[in-house]
Amino acid sequence: MYQLLQTIENAVQKYIEESNVVEVGSRGLEELGLDFRCGRILISVDEGFVAAASPRSIEYYGGWEYIDSEFKLDAGDYRFYDREADRVDRVIQYYRELLQEGYRYEDGKGFVNSNGLTVREAFEASKSQEQSEEL
User: What's the pTM value of the predicted model, to 2 decimals?
Assistant: First the structure.
């Protein structure tokens, strides 16, 4: 039985590695429309999933307990959520939009642009610049 479990865990890790995932922590979750208490998640745009090692947190704080079971898969140490579920698709879409706007995820800081500013900092700088131009 242990060998079967180990085989499954190895297959899941290989799948994650090959799925071009990005791990996002609490500092980036709000930009994706999630509560920061949802815990770390993995996002794969290529494969169309979000995975969580702590599904209780994302289900409780993110409302993902309402995602139909047909869009959830428990494998290894993760619960995978398919983009066919609206809540999952929204997170992937928010992530794509951030990438298109030139943001990248930095652990401990969140999504930052090429100037090293977070989404919130960039918004504040833009707002401040607009107010200066009005004067």
Answer: 0.88
